[in-house]
Write a structure and sequence with these properties.
This protein has about 120 residues and is α/β, with parallel strands linked by helices. The protein has one domain. Strands 3-4-5 form a three-stranded parallel β-sheet, with no helix packed on it. The termini are far apart.
Length: about 120
C-alpha cells in the first residue's frame, strides 16, 4: 500500500451517527455465498445492506453472524408503495419496519428514512 493510500476496510465514522464502518460494504442482492459474507465480515467489512432484493445465503450469513451483532452495521431498506389516494401514516410505516426487524431478530435500527 502507498503511504497515503487508505484501506477500504479501515474503519471510518459513518456520517454523524458515530458508527464505525469500513469504507466498503456488501449487499444482499449480489448472491454471494454465506461463507463469503462471513469471511468478508471477519476481515472488517461490517457494513451490510439488506435491501429489497434479498437472497437466502445472505440471510443465512446474518443468522450466523448474530453473536457478533455489536460489530455489525445492518442497513434495512424498507418502503411501502402508495397509490394516488393512499396515505400511509408514519406510525404504520414504522410498525411494518419494526415487524421486519423483529422477524430478522435485529433489536435496533439507527437511522430510518424512506418517505419521498
Amino acid at each position: 500500500m502507498l503511504k497515503n493510500e487508505t484501506s477500504l476496510l479501515e474503519p471510518t465514522t459513518l456520517g454523524r451517527t458515530g458508527l464505525k464502518v469500513g469504507r466498503l460494504g456488501m449487499s444482499a442482492s449480489y448472491g454471494m455465498p454465506a461463507a463469503a459474507v462471513g469471511m468478508a465480515f471477519d476481515r472488517g467489512m461490517n457494513y451490510l445492506y439488506w435491501g429489497s432484493l434479498r437472497r437466502g445465503a445472505f440471510a443465512d450469513a446474518l443468522r450466523h453472524l448474530k453473536p457478533q451483532r455489536e460489530r455489525m452495521v445492518l442497513v434495512v431498506q424498507s418502503y411501502m408503495r402508495m397509490s394516488g389516494s393512499t396515505v400511509i401514516k408514519s406510525r404504520e410505516f414504522m410498525a411494518a419496519h419494526y415487524s421486519r426487524l423483529k422477524r430478522r431478530q435485529s433489536h435496533e435500527t439507527g437511522v430510518t428514512t424512506g418517505f419521498s
